[in-house]
């Protein structure tokens, strides 16, 4: 293929380069994709700033990016459900082994799973990328590439809600946008019934009381998206007895929390690790119009300006920064 494959490659902490890399041929069960839209995730920025996340340490150059959608260019010999021209969203986690986690339907927990832009596995912030065809999902005509890329963060929400038991009529507290008025404003536009701006010197029990006053009752479920110790404490104090606290945000390895308070009130503490079996539901939610993720994209950059895009995300500007990888199509 005569096309060039511009890629955003992280060489080391703070060393992000835009360079040309070879275009891979798809294996029998793979497809070659022309990438269109790739969102920048906090984890991408963390690798760029620190060179590692927990036990995942960058040891050799790695292409970043895992919130992605693109167009099929070529299919492997064993692929029958996709064809060139199909628009697809990419699930970045692909199990390598049919282990016990895979057989239980929890393939996200498999210790050998491939995951885009998690060392040593390359991501898809590039012009062309090959991926397992079974983890590429065809997008309906009324779902844009950018919406397809946002299925990845949407999937985190879907998986968290499933694990927490969120259903019709659930009263839910979400901790995440609390310090920023503009983000709370977007949350309100997208369906949050109440907003509470948090000040840095607010105490956890004091905030829990405010939550109860605003809702008229303690929430049955709290989805904690920050990973900050004080927010986890607030989540535990705020949640009603017999309720569930869902830990989505990742923070310090060791955290001090009011464990006895949670235990004697039978508040369940649950975690999530990425997601599994969420793409079909997410696509249905977007296609039906029941969920609107379009307002979340606040900044767009061509792939050539990836470093500037990462700086924008690192500075906390806007909400979702989207990189456009197809030089001939910069549309959503």
UniProtKB/TrEMBL annotation:
Molecular function in Gene Ontology: L-iditol 2-dehydrogenase (NAD+) activity; zinc ion binding
InterPro entries associated with the record: ADH-like_C, ADH-like_N, ADH_Zn_CS, ER, GroES-like_sf, NAD(P)-bd_dom_sf, SDH-like
PROSITE patterns documented for this protein: ADH_ZINC (PS00059)
Keyword annotations: Metal-binding, Oxidoreductase, Zinc
Sections of the chain in a coiled coil: none
Cofactor: Zn(2+)
Pfam families named among the record's database cross-references: ADH_N, ADH_zinc_N
GO biological process, one term: sorbitol catabolic process
Gene3D superfamilies xref list: Medium-chain alcohol dehydrogenases, catalytic domain (3.90.180.10), NAD(P)-binding Rossmann-like Domain (3.40.50.720)
Superkingdom of the organism of origin: Eukaryota
Listed SUPFAM superfamilies: GroES-like (SSF50129), NAD(P)-binding Rossmann-fold domains (SSF51735)
Residue stretches making up the Enoyl reductase (ER) domain: 14-323
Family: Belongs to the zinc-containing alcohol dehydrogenase family.
Protein name listed in UniProt: Sorbitol dehydrogenase
